Every structure is written in C-alpha cells, then in structure tokens.
Amino acid sequence: MPGYSDRDRGGRDRGYNSGPPRFGGSRNGPPQGKKFGNPGDRLRKKHWNLDELPKFEKNFYQEHHEVSRRTPQEVDNYRRSKEITVKGREVPKPIMKFHEASFPNYVMDVIHKQNWTEPTPIQGQGWPVALSGKDMVGIAQTGSGKTLSYLLPAIVHINHQPFLEHGDGPICLVLAPTRELAQQVQQVAADYGKASRLKSTCIYGGAPKGPQIRDLERGVEICIATPGRLIDFLEVGKTNLRRCTYLVLDEADRMLDMGFEPQIRKIVDQIRPDRQTLMWSATWPKEVRQLAEDFLKEYVQINVGALQLSANHNILQIVDVCNDGEKEDKLLRLLEEIMSEKENKTIIFVETKRRCDDLTRRMRRDGWPAMGIHGDKSQQERDWVLNEFKFGKAPILIATDVASRGLGLFLPFYLELYFISGNLSFTITIYYKYCCYL
C-alpha cells in the first residue's frame, strides 16, 4: 500500500499537456437538436465498464505508531468524550493530534500557521476514514470543521493521480447548495492547495459564466460547484467529469430541501462508479439516507452529537417573548449594549426580503452601521456586504436565510432572530462562545 509522504515534483507545475482528451468522449458537448425543458435533460446517463477505465489509487492511510498503540478502551473513551459514534466495517481508529494524520509537509505547514491545538472530533475520526479511500457519511453541525475533513484528504488524493491533460475535467468535485458556501470552500481549497500547486475554481449561478468557463478550460484539479450551474456547463460541454474520482456532497440535507435531488443524480451519473464519495449533512432524515444508499458503497457513517438537529452546546440562547410593538425598542436597547463591546459583530435574521430592506433602511437612517443581504442582491453586492461585515466596517448584518449556514465568519458575534406569530414576537439572542472551525 503506498504511503503519502511528500511527492517529488521536480519543480513541475501541474500543467496541462497538449493533445486529445483522454478517457474518451468529446469536449464539444452533446449534439444540438431539440430543446429540453429540465436541467440535465441533455445529459445522457453513462454506462461504465470498469475493466476499461484507467485504474487509480485511493488508499493512502498509514496509521501513526501512536495511534496503533492505543487500546480499544482508549479509543472508546475518546469517542465517548467527543460524542462520536461510528457505523461500518473496519473503521480506523481516530487521531487525537494533527501529526498523527501523517499529512505531507505541504499540508502540515499550513495547519501549523493556524495555531490550532488539536483536530475537531469530525476531523479526528474523519481523516483516517477519508485517507483510507472509504466512502463515508459525516453528520455534524455547521462549524464543526467538516470543510477540512474532506479537503485535506482530497489534496492528498489528487497529488497521487496522474497530472491533468488538455481536455480533462476536475479530479475532485464538491457540490454545495449555495454560492456563499461554495465560495467559502473554494477559499479554503486555494489556501491549502497552493503549496502543492493545485488549481481550484468555484462555479455558481448569479455570476458571469465567462471567467468560470476559462478556469475550467485551463484545467483545475478541484471544482466547487452549485448543481444548477454545473449542469449548465456539462450540457454544453464546457467541462466533463471523466477524471473525477473524489466526490463530495456538502450539506446534502440542504441541497435536498432546495430541490436539487434531480440535478445531483444527473451529475453523479456522469462520474465513474468506483469513485470515492463523501457526504456531509447536519441531519439524517430518510431522504438523505436514501441518497447515501444510492451513491455510496460500504460506507462508514460518522456522527458527532445527536442524529436529530439539536442546539449547539457552545452557544448560549436567550429567548425573549414580547408583543410586536415592543420588539424594536428591545432591539435598539440590545444593540446599544452590544455596540459598547469590543467584539460587537451582530447578525439579525428576518423572515422576508422586504423586511430585510425595510429594517436596514431604518437602522441606517438612525445612524446604525447596518447592511442587508438576501437572495435578490447581486453576487457582487453580496460579496461586498459580507466583506464589510467580516472586517468590521459594518458590524451589523441584516439577513434572510441566505446567510443562515456556511458564511465562514471566524470572529465571535451575536445573532438575533425574529419570528412573528400573531401578536407575539419571539426574539432569540445567541451568544457564540468561540470561533468556528472550517
């Protein structure tokens, strides 16, 4: 079994040689003819013959000697203390320190710069599973460190595959439900991939197609995509998934909630069936379980915390039930207290886009440093607002549920949610105790 110590690149860039596309097929896309009504209708389901496909390696895990020496009792105690449960055959022992993952130096150097003390629970158990080449389902809350749980093994996986050639699509595909989450994942991929000269791109709707197409045509090892935009590019032959051997479904439960299941199935049909697949979800409803049964083989399931979506224990929640007329006075008094603190970033979630715009206008008129974000804003405006909030220029962000998961904000902040029911308004104030991991 091959290890994954540092690979001697001899100064080579992961360039893309000229020549015809490999693995068969054409980059000219399907024949043009009748128009199809639904996304993916022009994609034909592939019929794979595994005997004819190029072989690839996906097991790179070498158990560290410190991990090997741990007794079953020590492993059970660690899992119990971190609320980790596992299901599956031959599940590797978890790691407790970063060096026990035996990542190559180009990965460890970036980890050391973060000054983290130990892996999060999902990383400690997830890295050995992913590096072993196994399919896996990870069930953990947002902010648990899942992004690095799949991206660092992806980088190791890619660095042991043949270099991309002209016409090749990505080796690693990450599907995400929203452009905000996709952009966050792409930033992490860029930060950790540049040391080994891996190229990544992010493709999503609401942005010009030209730059995204140019990235794909130049060749990228990692593609982070929302399902709709990826379907568009696959249908017209702007990319392909012939080289994809590492597939990630991030926030699978939310993608299903948003109605992306048909697109996901169309996309997965374009990927060789012996790929490695990792699925991530905050919940484990029957729809997500069915997706796992359809897409994964002999998978390991890792759960951190309860299977049902529950309150994060690192958060203090205060519920204030009041009449509708009292709500804004309470909000202003609370904001006055928060703005006097050194760490004063605040997100106010509202139910509708109109409510978001109205509240933002009124607060700015009264001198509050507030900005709003919702689904009708252009991508450029959304990016600008998030940057203003992230760097403290506008410490109050008013948002609809477009920002409810996966924003990737690393400083402690306050969070306000307003729910209106009849004459009562429910105000939930959430105080984060610590910064979220990726």
Automatic annotation (TrEMBL):
Substrates-to-products reaction catalysed: ATP + H2O = ADP + phosphate + H(+)
Chain intervals for the UniProt region annotation (Disordered): 1-46
Pfam families assigned to the protein according to its UniProt record, in alphabetical order: DEAD, Helicase_C
Top EC class for this record: hydrolase
Recorded superkingdom: Eukaryota
UniProt xrefs under SUPFAM superfamilies: P-loop containing nucleoside triphosphate hydrolases (SSF52540)
An example Gene Ontology molecular-function term: hydrolase activity
Keywords from the UniProt entry: ATP-binding, Helicase, Hydrolase, Nucleotide-binding, RNA-binding
Ranges spanned by the short sequence motif Q motif, renumbered to the chain: 96-124
Biased composition (Basic and acidic residues): 1-15
InterPro entries the record matches: DEAD/DEAH_box_helicase_dom, Helicase_ATP-bd, Helicase_C-like, P-loop_NTPase, RNA-helicase_DEAD-box_CS, RNA_helicase_DEAD_Q_motif
Secretion signal, residue range per the UniProt entry: none
Domain DEAD-box RNA helicase Q positions: 96-124
Keyword Hydrolase among record annotations: yes
Helicase ATP-binding domain residues: 127-302
Residue ranges annotated for the Helicase C-terminal domain, each copy included: 330-438
EC numbers, comma separated: 3.6.4.13
Family membership: Belongs to the DEAD box helicase family.
Name listed for the protein in its UniProt record: RNA helicase
Organism for this UniProt entry: Triplophysa rosa
